[in-house]
Amino acid sequence: MKSVLKVFNINNQRDVSNIQRAITSNEGIIACEISIEKKEIQVIYNESWLDIDKVKESIENLGYMIL
Questions:
Q1: Residue 65 domain-assigned (yes or no)
Q2: What residue stretches are annotated with the HMA domain (predicted)?
Q3: pTM to 2 decimal places
C-alpha cells in the first residue's frame, strides 16, 4: 500500500533524518521518500503488517504535525 502524508513542519535535513528514522522503526515499512519542498512523505508499506495510523503516530510523537 502507498500513502502520501502532508507534514506541516518539515524544514531541513535534520527533520528528514528524524522522520525517516521514526518511520523505518515500524515493522512492515518497504520504502519512504520525504520531500522538504513539498512537505510530504510517501510511504510504501505492507498493510497486513502495519496500519498507516501507526506510522502517523510515530511521526506525531516527534512533534511534527500531519495535515
A1: no
A2: 1-67
A3: 0.91
